[in-house]
């Protein structure tokens, strides 16, 4: 009888302990859920937007849940949102997107938003009149729609983030919305914004200095050219196989020949491409130059940055600093 009582008592103690543990776990879970629900939900489309947000958040990163939709290597012009992506956009507190032709899917997603207090930043809208129309330079392969005469509407160059001047304007706009969403930490965000703007301005000055010192003021690109905002900022000229938003991949012999002659005339040491290029066009241009000894350098447009690269420490400032080194080489001329 005593043995039975001891067994029953032990069982009661075990069950009570288990229930206590469950209650504790449940409490922790509820606490975690409550903390997560208080976080600002920010959704960005491309890497530069994502990085600007994280720079503004700084040490207060735990106050927000930040998502970068284009995180698997697909570029802006090819991206198609998944059902999960749309759901994140519809329920977030702040949504940041570029706003060009590549983002035509956004209007429908926002129309069906479940968060009526959502704040939205359209980069092209923020920049207003400083946004440039897509440019077709001499020697470029024409778009198919241009050949067919189907395009009456102006097509805007979406690659606004490749201007440090634009980056400063956009960072200010993003910081303003984050501060409004989390006024308790607005002072910290403001300090982070000020420091980041200082770093952007310092790099902008380095670009100006490098261009002033460069004998060459023109680069040749055997690829698409999404860097118009960058070259316009510093008074540079360029020739390229395709426009920045072009979907074309094959250049005609006429385009190849034109660019090869420009390389010869400008006495360029290097031909530029963009990240992810197979370099085929650049190599063909080199084969058609007089000396056939040019090198190929690569500019990073940040259109297809992956989450893995972000985890490894890739930043907007880091890329733009590296691009400055590449730009110097792309402008180099034989003496």
UniProtKB/TrEMBL annotation:
Q: What PROSITE patterns does the entry give?
A: PROKAR_LIPOPROTEIN
Q: Name one GO molecular function term.
A: metal ion binding
- Which keywords annotate this record? Signal, Transport
The Basic and acidic residues compositionally biased stretches are 132-143
Q: Where is this region: Disordered?
A: 132-155
Known Pfam families for this protein?
ZnuA
Instruction: List the GO biological process terms.
Output: metal ion transport
Signal peptide per UniProt:
1-23
**According to the UniProt entry, which residue ranges have a biased composition of type Acidic residues?**
144-155
Which family does the UniProt entry place this protein in?
A: Belongs to the bacterial solute-binding protein 9 family.
**Name the record gives this protein:** ABC transporter substrate-binding protein
Q: Which organism is it from?
A: Hornefia porci
């Amino acid at each position: 009888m005593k043995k039975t009582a001891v067994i029953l008592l032990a069982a009661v103690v075990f069950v009570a302990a288990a229930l206590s543990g469950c209650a504790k776990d449940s409490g922790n879970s509820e606490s975690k859920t409550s903390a997560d629900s208080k976080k600002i939900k920010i959704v960005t489309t491309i890497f530069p937007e994502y990085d600007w947000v994280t720079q503004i958040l700084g040490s207060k990163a735990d106050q927000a849940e930040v998502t970068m939709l284009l995180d698997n290597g697909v570029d802006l012009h090819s991206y198609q949102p998944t059902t999960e992506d749309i759901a994140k956009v519809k329920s977030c507190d702040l949504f940041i997107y570029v706003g060009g032709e590549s983002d035509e899917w956004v209007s429908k997603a926002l129309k069906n938003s479940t968060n009526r207090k959502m704040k939205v930043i359209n980069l092209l809208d923020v920049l207003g009149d400083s946004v440039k129309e897509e440019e077709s330079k001499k020697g470029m392969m024409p778009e198919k729609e241009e050949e067919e005469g189907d395009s009456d509407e102006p097509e805007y160059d979406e690659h606004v983030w490749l201007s440090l001047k634009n980056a400063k304007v956009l960072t200010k706009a993003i910081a303003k919305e984050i501060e409004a969403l989390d006024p308790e930490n607005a002072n910290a965000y403001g300090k982070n914004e000020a420091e980041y703007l200082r770093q952007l301005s310092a790099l902008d000055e380095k670009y100006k200095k490098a261009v002033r010192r460069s004998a060459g003021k023109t680069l040749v690109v055997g690829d698409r050219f999404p860097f118009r905002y960058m070259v316009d900022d510093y008074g540079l000229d360029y020739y390229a196989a395709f426009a920045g938003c072009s979907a074309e991949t094959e250049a005609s012999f006429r385009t190849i020949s034109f660019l090869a002659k420009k390389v010869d005339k400008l006495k360029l040491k290097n031909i530029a491409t963009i990240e992810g290029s197979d370099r085929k066009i650049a190599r063909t241009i080199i084969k058609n130059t007089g000396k056939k000894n040019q090198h190929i350098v690569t500019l990073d447009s940040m259109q297809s940055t992956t989450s893995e690269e972000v985890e490894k420490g890739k930043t907007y400032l880091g890329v733009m600093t590296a691009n400055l080194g590449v730009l110097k080489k792309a402008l180099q001329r034989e003496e």
